[in-house]
Amino acid sequence: MIQDSGNRRQFESGAVRDMAEGKGRCDLLPLEVVNELYVAFKKCDGKRPEDEGLSIFANLGQYIELGDVKYLYYAILEFCNDIVHWDFSTTVLEVSKQYEEGCQKYGDRNWEKGIPLHCYIDSGTRHLLKFLRGDIDERHDRAFVWNIFGAIWTAKHKPDCIDLPFNETTKNPVEEFGRTAYKFGEKKQSGIPLRE
Predict the structure, then answer these.
(1) Of 180, 196, 88, 91, the residue nearest 141 (C-alpha)
(2) Residue 18 is assigned to a structural domain of this protein
(3) Tell me: the pLDDT tens digits for 151-181?
């Protein structure tokens, strides 16, 4: 049976649908990042590679130092699997709610206009710390993952917003796990470098 809230939204065409409020805004998700996260979940079988042995904070630090977005994916994987115990679908659906709430506050796709990369790392780390401390004033779990999504998307699509130290030091691609890692200045990346 199709769930029904009893409330409707009507479009200019006359079509109607159930209200969407509170369900998340999947249309706002950076689906390229979502796809690569899905690949990471599948390749790692829902767990980060054992030999990496890095904590979430170390992964964020490695990203700042090296500029390789695989460390941001590792941070998401560790957080989702080891801390909040979300699978891939739960992760994406929870983050879509953060996108919905964000567009209510800032407007649709505000984050795509360009926010300095350090802001995502700063805010994401703060939300992670607040979540770990047990703060319940807002959904810090969602906000952490949202910020890391934003950092990944920005690193790939807004090179003029990259303002972290690796911006000046990382200039060559790095071969790792059989695939080329992110190279500074490239707009696109074929996928996160993970084990084949």
Answers:
(1) 91
(2) no
(3) 999 999 999 989 888 745 444 333 333 333 4
Strands 8-10 and 16-18 come out as antiparallel
**Residue 61 located in a structural domain:** yes
Structural domains in the chain (count):
1
Contact 158, 114 (CB under 8 A): yes
pTM tops 0.85, yes or no: no
Residue 162 in domain: yes
DSSP 3-state of 17: strand
Report the distance separating Cα 144 and Cα 78, nearest Å: 12
In a domain, 185, yes or no: no
The amino acid at residue 166 is F
Give pLDDT tens digits for 52-109.
445 888 888 888 888 999 999 999 999 999 899 999 999 999 999 999 998 888 888 8
